[in-house]
Amino acid sequence: MTDDVLLSAKGLTKTFGDFTAVDGIDVEVRRGESFGFLGPNGAGKSSTMRMVAAVSPVTSGELRIFGQDPATHGPAIRARLGNCPQQDRLDEELSVEENLWVYGRFFGLTRAEVRARADELLDFAQLTERRKDKVEPLSGGMKRRLVIARSLINNPELLLLDEPTTGLDPQARHVLWDRLFRLKRQGVTLILTTHYMDEAEQLCDRLVVMDHGRIVAEGSPRALIQEHSTREVVEVRYDVDDHGVHAGPLEGIGDRLEILPDRVLIYADDGDAAAGAVARSGTEPLSTLVRRSTLEDVFLHLTGRTLVD
């Protein structure tokens, strides 16, 4: 393991009794990367993140963070990590700045260091004007920005973000994306989990798609789209309850056909040509839309459209 590799996992496994949450995955994250774990609920993302955060023991396999084994060097690893869990877990009886002060003291920072660092982070998180306010009445987006600011109090080399924007409205999500992009530009290595496709495309240099505890694909968002989908997708809608009745006339158009309850998806490298073939198919669609293929198309192709309980 070189100094450039901050995280290395080989055959990493996590079980809970008879249930296997993480099933022998191999992962490597390099300094300065923004790396993502993408997958549906129950795919094993959060279990993986808890092992990487050195707060959950590895069942089997090898895990090294900063070249160290979390089983024997947990405190040293955690001192160099920033951790933003799914739940905010803020002290709502304290003010915004007091939450930062208290957390900073856990890392052994002096009072002067904590206050100076808190000032920087409040500005970064756009919370300077709310520094004296109690946490409880803050909006969800403000609380999430405060949690991220708190996770940066120790100047971490590696920042872990578990579902960082879940539950936030679109405006709050975009503000948070901007803050994370700034961190990446500053050289902080990011590892995040998400089930938002646009978030993964926006933030991740490289990612893995997980399903049922295993990695089913790995690469950059663009590379995954090129490998597992077509350049464009044609969405065709009809005035029928069962779109499957039009499957026959549309067969052979494009590379792949997918029948959904409310539309037919035609995967093709030339969307306009495929849309023209639909017009000549003898069917009468209500609408035909040509769009570029996205990471969501890859995700659903690899993991399916069935809900995971």
TrEMBL record:
Membrane topology recorded in Swiss-Prot or TrEMBL: Peripheral membrane protein
Keywords in alphabetical order: Antibiotic resistance, ATP-binding, Cell membrane, Hydrolase, Membrane, Nucleotide-binding, Translocase, Transport
Annotated ranges, domain ABC transporter: 7-237
An annotated Gene Ontology molecular function: ATP binding
GO cellular component, one term: plasma membrane
InterPro entries assigned: AAA+_ATPase, ABC_transporter-like_ATP-bd, ABC_transporter-like_CS, ABC_transporter_ATP-binding, P-loop_NTPase
Pfam families for this protein: ABC_tran (PF00005)
PROSITE patterns xref list: ABC_TRANSPORTER_1, ABC_TRANSPORTER_2
EC number(s) reported in the record: 3.6.3.-
Subcellular compartments: Cell membrane
Transmembrane segments: none
GO BP of this protein: response to antibiotic
Similarity section: Belongs to the ABC transporter superfamily.
Protein name: Nod factor export ATP-binding protein I
Source organism of the structure: Phycicoccus elongatus Lp2
